[in-house]
Design brief:
2 helices, single chain, 3 domains, Immunoglobulin-like, Jelly Rolls, 28 strands, 4-stranded antiparallel β-sheet, 6-stranded antiparallel β-sheet, mainly beta
Length: 433
């Protein structure tokens, strides 16, 4: 059978199409949302997931507003923050909405229902910020009376700060992300707690953290008192509290410096290697008197428990204003005994592009770096141990085989300006993020 297709003229075609569209537009869905006129009213607010009446809620919580004529609502604001509305969740008597996650600029403790004509209905409702998150502190080993700054989020309505063994009686909330205070007498090791009207939370770090301490340069905190290799601290790099114009953070510490123009603008040029290096080389000889790296078993267990992504290398650092740092990167390397050992000492691994390491270059922003004559805590996640000596991506992945030794030195990486920085370091440790 042969099919015949006839093409209609333009006028007749258009008429048929328009007629079809008109027919479609007459069809409607029974649940289709249509806005109404007039003002809405609110009887009460409850949680969307449970029938509990509430007069306050946290950011990001999902609420159900119960009332009348709620299909007249065009916008909902909590304080001065507009919520996202989905008309699929709006009926005449219920409106489901999520509280915005952005803190209010102006707090009124009210919810506002706004119609398309900008008529507004106000309803008393308080928004609480989330429980605070405490992520870091300028110096985790600060002494009594020393001023420190906490960083984090949701420092809103702060009512108290506590350290193990002591409470902070005077503090300044700089913003929702930072608080400044002085370390009180009697404070001991452990997490810092911040309390707001939303509740209390502990810091992700610990004050005076001595967990998995690799080097403390005096053995007082469970770490190694010295290194081993060509450039161990015993060879002039170990200073004690009071040896310098600045105070030590906690007893003895590693001291890098002492050379005139020891670091050159060219990051890979001639440098004062003895003055800006620290080694701990283990031995492959089972009868060697060289002790294994302290906390080795803890480090290994941490890797099993938290993984590389869950751990960070930390240390306290002081770079005085009199000797700022202006060139080269600090290279931090964990090593395996087969490649780096005291039996056949060599520094060839410094520039081995198959040897993963982290690079710390704080002077790169601004061209110069010092810590304002104060000790600060530095944190470098183990996920950053992925570079070559020049900051390129290393093909070798850091893993548990690199737990026998440790090296840090200031050379390579980024080029800057000639300088002779002093870099003091204490409490080298690897802890959970």
């Amino acid at each position: 059978m042969k099919s015949t297709i006839k093409y209609l003229g333009g006028f007749l075609s258009a008429a048929i199409v328009l007629g079809g569209l008109a027919s479609c537009q007459k069809m409607d869905y029974p649940d289709r949302f249509t806005a109404t006129e007039g003002l809405p009213s609110v009887d009460y607010v409850r949680y969307a997931a449970q029938d509990v009446f509430i007069s306050q809620a946290f950011m990001d919580e999902v609420l159900c507003v119960v009332g009348d004529n709620l299909r007249s609502v065009h916008d909902v604001l909590f304080n001065d923050q507009k919520a996202i509305l989905n008309t699929s969740y709006i009926t005449d008597h219920t409106l489901i909405v999520s509280v915005p996650s952005t803190p209010a600029k102006v707090t009124t403790n009210c919810m506002y229902l706004v119609t398309a004509k900008q008529d507004t209905v106000k309803y008393d409702f308080k928004i609480l910020p989330p429980i605070p998150k405490i992520t870091s502190m300028t110096n985790e080993w600060a002494k009594e009376g020393e001023e420190v700054t906490l960083y984090g989020r949701y420092f809103i309505g702060v009512t108290g700060i506590d350290l193990p063994g002591a409470s902070v009686t005077d503090f300044t909330v700089n913003s929702s992300e930072s608080i400044t205070f002085k370390i009180p007498a009697g404070a001991s090791a452990g997490p810092v707690t911040v309390t707001t009207e939303s509740g209390s939370a502990n810091s992700v770090f610990q004050f005076m953290d001595s967990r998995n301490m690799l080097f403390d340069f005096d053995g007082l905190r469970g770490g190694m008192a010295t290194g081993n290799g060509w450039r161990a601290p015993a060879k002039g790099h170990l200073h004690n509290d009071g040896d310098d114009a600045f105070a030590g953070v906690d007893g003895a510490y590693l001291w890098l410096g002492g050379a005139s123009n020891g670091l050159k603008a060219d990051a890979t040029g001639v440098w004062a290697e003895d003055e800006y290096s620290f080694d701990y080389w283990n031995s492959t000889d089972v009868n060697s008197a060289i002790p294994p790296l302290k906390s080795l078993s803890t480090f290994s267990n941490y890797l099993d428990k938290y993984g590389i992504a869950g751990l960070t290398l930390k240390f306290e650092c002081m770079v005085p204003t009199s000797n700022p740092w202006k060139t080269c990167s600090m290279q931090l390397m964990f090593s395996d005994s087969k490649t780096v050992n005291a039996d056949a000492g060599t520094n060839n691994y410094f520039s081995d592009e198959n040897f993963p390491r982290a690079l710390w270059t704080p002077w790169l922003v601004g061209g110069s770096y010092d810590t304002g004559d104060k000790w600060v805590t530095v944190s470098i996640p183990l996920t950053e141990f992925v570079y070559t000596h020049m900051g390129k991506s290393c093909a070798t992945t850091f893993d548990k085989s690199y737990l026998d030794g440790f090296t840090l030195f200031v050379w390579g990486g980024e080029s800057g300006s000639d300088c002779d920085p002093v870099i003091a370091i204490d409490h080298i440790r690897v802890v959970p993020l």
